[in-house]
Structure formats: C-alpha cells, structure tokens
Amino acid sequence: MRAGVVLRTAAVVIVAVVAVAIDSIGGDSTTVATTAVQRSNADSSARALPRATKKTSRPYIVIDRYANRLFVRTEDSVWIDATCSTGSGAQLADSVSGRRWVFDTPAGRFTVTSKLIDPWWRKPDWAFIEDSLPIPKSERERFDSEMLGAFAIGFGDGYFIHGTLYERLLGVSVTHGCVRLGAEDLEKVFRYVSIGTPIYIY
User: Fold this and answer.
1) Separation CA 154–CA 162 (nearest Å)
2) 12-60, pLDDT tens digit by residue?
3) Sequence spans of domains, the chain
4) SS3 90
5) DSSP at 172
6) 80, 123 in Cβ contact below 8 A?
7) Cβ atoms within 10 A of the Cβ of 97, count?
8) Helix, strand, or coil (residue 25)
C-alpha cells in the first residue's frame, strides 16, 4: 500500500495520502488516494517506545528488493537484519476507466518523513478493482484498521514501511509498493529510526 502523509494535530490525527502510480506501458499516470488515521494522542503516548540507546554513528536503513531484506545499520555495525516483502511488479488495469497501476517499490535514496502509531488504511480504488469489488460510495467502507499493523514509517511519495497480516509471505515480492515487515521487526525499526533517517533501496 502506498501512503504519503499530511499530519494534522488534533485528538484524532487524520493523515491524507496521495500517491502517483505510473503506467510503464502507456506512459499515463493515475493518482491513487489513500488515507491513514492515527488514533488519539492519548493512545499514542501510552504506547510510546524507548529511544535507541546506541550513541555511535547515526543509523540508516538499507532495503534489498531482490533478496527482500531490510537492514538498520551504521557505518560499522548491523543493528537489525530482517526479512521483508517488497513490490510485486504486477500491473493492474481498470477495464472501465482505463486506469493502470504498476506495483513496484522504488529504488534510490529516501528519508523517513513520518512515523505513525496504530495507522488505519483508507483503501484506494485499485484495492477494490483488484478484488473485483464495486468501488464503494461510502467512505466508511474504505477504512481498514488492521492492514498496516501497529506502526508505519513513511518515506515519501506515498510509500511506507509497515506491518502485515500475512507474515507467512515475508521474503516474497508481493506488495503494492510499500515494504512489509513482521510485527517484532517493525517495532524494532520504528524504535531505532527517526524523522530524517536515510533509507537506501536497491
């Protein structure tokens, strides 16, 4: 799932997400809107995690899309070596509107732009089209409180490192562009990184 975020400071934080999927065949672009919702500030503070205690060089994240591995490391040590799942590379076309999506995890250098606790996912149109379901008219039918897991780490352009309901598929390229981690590894990564932490994906 892709999710770029805008955080509003309120008792309940609404995070609006916009991502752009590029059709590698026709060159057309389709805007995909999703929304994550963070629960109340009280809930967030109750689940606050301890900060990393290591005082060596600053950590950074490395994601190997070919081996589906995620590392949190410094110049001279590896703090976390985790199995992840990255983009499938699959393409999806809507026969009605002609819209197309390509589900790749991007390569390059990024930075952590947001950290969310208990995120909710607002399903974009492609999530319904993929399952051969009608696109709902009610916004309530789009929200999913479990799909992203307990934490989400945004790194721009609608992409997140987040949890998964399907940990048995970790190590397989099956996502829609985001990076999935198991619950234990995700919590560790969330604890060690901060806004601005570099992310290198290849």
Assistant:
1) 9
2) 333 333 333 322 323 333 323 233 555 433 333 334 444 445 455 899 9
3) 13-46+58-201
4) coil
5) S
6) no
7) 11
8) coil
The fourth-level CATH superfamily of domain 13-46+58-201 is L,D-transpeptidase catalytic domain-like (2.40.440.10)
Distance from C-alpha of 87 to C-alpha of 65, rounded to nearest angstrom: 8
Distance CA 48, CA 151 (A): 11
Identify the bridge partners of residue 36 per DSSP, sorted by sequence position. Answer: 15
- pTM score of the predicted model: 0.72
Tell me the two tokens of residue 29. 């672009």
User: Which of 196, 186, 181 is closest to 83 using CA atoms?
Assistant: 181
Q: Helix, strand or coil for residue 145? A: coil
Residue 22, CA distances (Å) to 32, 98, 195 in order:
10, 13, 27
